[in-house]
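Re: export button greyed out
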Amino acid sequence: METFEDYLRSFTQLTELEIKQIQGCSLPVSLRRRQLLLREGDVCRHKIFVARGLLRTFRVRPDGLESTMRFSAEKGWAIDPESYVDQTPSHYRIEALESTKVLLWTRECMEELFETIPSFRLISERLREKSLNYSQQRIFINISHTAEEKYEDFIQNHPDLFRRIPLHLVASYLGVSRETLSRIRHKRHGGH
Amino acid sequence: METFEDYLRSFTQLTELEIKQIQGCSLPVSLRRRQLLLREGDVCRHKIFVARGLLRTFRVRPDGLESTMRFSAEKGWAIDPESYVDQTPSHYRIEALESTKVLLWTRECMEELFETIPSFRLISERLREKSLNYSQQRIFINISHTAEEKYEDFIQNHPDLFRRIPLHLVASYLGVSRETLSRIRHKRHGGH
DNA sequence: CGATTCTTTGAAAACAGTCAATCTGTGTGG
DNA sequence: CCACACAGATTGACTGTTTTCAAAGAATCG
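Workaround output, generated via the alternate export path:
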């Protein structure tokens, strides 16, 4: 898979051989729109790399309300870290929003790669740090900003995605109703 | 410092010698109420362990609104991970809510300890995972729950703290106005 | 194209924020 | 001990925002 190799090369710490090795451990999977990679109750057994397409990680409340935790597009990752690390049942669902190609690694497989290729572990840790920083940022936005500002911030942080994701799913990511987000967008783009 | 030793012992992976060693690298500091450990613009140079008292990590918006990211009580940690890791200026302020005793370690010091005591690194990584899980949980609550439910959740997660922290600071943690939280609490505890 | 999904709109109701005033408890200094 | 200041909590009236419900319009998939 081209995309993944390019992605790993961008870190400039890995040899071509190592890249092949990491890639070689992965299981490529193709998904149709709507297809699920994980559902609540399952244990999240893989780290997921998105080579093409778009994934959505979300949670369904008893009343049917969906809350989106994350969108993962090309060169992005998806996982339920809690379920993956502890091998406990997940609360989340991971679904393809478009037809999507992913690479999967089991935890055992990843651990083995980390042992063999120390710089790959560093890269992975660096990613986890970024993920934590982003979460902090998102919490801050959520407790301090208005719905308008949250939408603005989402556009800043995902300039490539906000046209690609149905508005009602963005709403479920921001924690506002689709109607509200529709009206915000209407105001923002000045009538339209 | 007794508290820290007890805390480390609770992980049951460290020898007494190692505990002494970790403890020995730390710088103990006492803080009065209101005193700051970090202010915005500073680089966060230390990991902070709270041996006694209570810290609050928060951010001040241009209009003066304060948003609390975290409370750290006895046997808890405080840090701005982003500033600490990248050594960039922080956006946060860390302040003592009560008179507080903390232990500080510089990043260099921590790295050295991790090299010397591998199981201490594991413990630290485990803590970071928990921190990430908790952040995810908090995001989920924030985008899907009502103010009431958020307050309820806060009480569940911090049963020891919610009586100790002024209500208006809890409000700034939940992202609601103090008046709203006051009314929620009134309803909840049935008049009183 | 037909069915489904997604988006928009309007009106009413629920909710939360703001402002201003009051109340409570604590600690200080006279 | 009292008076006072201060920080925190509460309350009421009002305003503004967001949700909800219902319906209809637009876009897209197969």
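DSSP finds eight helices and eight strands in chain B. The button fix ships in the next patch.
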